[in-house]
Amino acid sequence: MTTSTVTATATATATTTAASPKPLRIAIAGLGAIGKSLARTLAAGSIPGVTLSAVSAKNLDRAREFVETLPVKAAVLAIADLEPNADVVVECAPGALLPQIVTPFLKARKHAIVLSVGALLSHPDLIELARAAGGTLLVPTGALIGLDAVIAAAEGTIHSVTMVTRKPPNGLVGAPYLVENHIEVDGLTEPKRVFKGNAREAARGFPANLNVVAALSLAGIGPDRTTLEIWADPTVTRNVHSIEVDSDSARFRMTMENIPSENPKTGRIVAQSVVALLRKMNANFRVGT
Q1: pTM to 2 decimal places
Q2: Which among 54, 117, 209, 212 counts the fewest CB atoms within 10 Å?
């Protein structure tokens, strides 16, 4: 083989390697409605350059049964074993598990996508850990239309952020705030306001329902100044969020009606928002802030 042939071969190999980076390995922690939907999408190869490498759930036997239905098999692991097997973890679990899921990834300078955003308000230490260790916490847009506009407005001065959420009563059943205050929502025939307060209080009282207001508060003026009303409304079949923002750069109102997933507490668009974020992470052309 001549020198020129060797050089050409080496160049071709380098070009091939540069054009074919290793796929981004994704772990999913939690296999509820959102986790399963995301796993099916990733296993189907819908996002170029992204692969499902591992999953974890409370019941590992059921998780294995679910993985067997996927076209591409992922490892089924305990939460503590996810980090060595993935570059990104998507947290789809109860908020109480958030520190356990994301801490190893942050310490390893990797990415953690957080869906239990309300839990971040109770664990600001995780944000500090990300800064100190060099890891990255990512909050997808989820059910919140116009999050980019709020982020942009926060570069100036935001005077106020208010939100009104209306949900079918069955989407609020079991919320700690309702239980603690003996508020009944079963059998309602007309809308009933069940909460008025700030985002921090809402995240504590409705941990499975109001991640959207937690994300809104983190993007804008914080959880103590972002105000919220929650209505149990038997006249709606979708989760309806109405938001009004007043700032020195713009005043805007947004209303979004989210179709519930198989879990009435969460919208179908949440899983799609994670897919969009993963696609954006691996893209050479990105639209949005």
Answers
A1: 0.85
A2: 54
